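Table 4 source record.
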Amino acid sequence: MAAGSLIRSLIRLWALSLMLSTVLVAAGERWPGSLPVNPGVVAALVLGLPLLQLLWLARHWSLPGADGSGTGDGGESQQ
């Protein structure tokens, strides 16, 4: 993935997160009453997305040359 493409993807993700945050704040200001705090729901909301991101990164991450397309000069001697 080229650096420009990566930066565009990160900016797109950041903008999406900012829009979601704005919508949640607006919804919170219009909510008629306070919600009870449920620790299980809070933990799922706080940890859920980071865990999904971790799983996505672990699935899509690859080291240079790990897929066989590298040059093979990872420090080993060529004989």
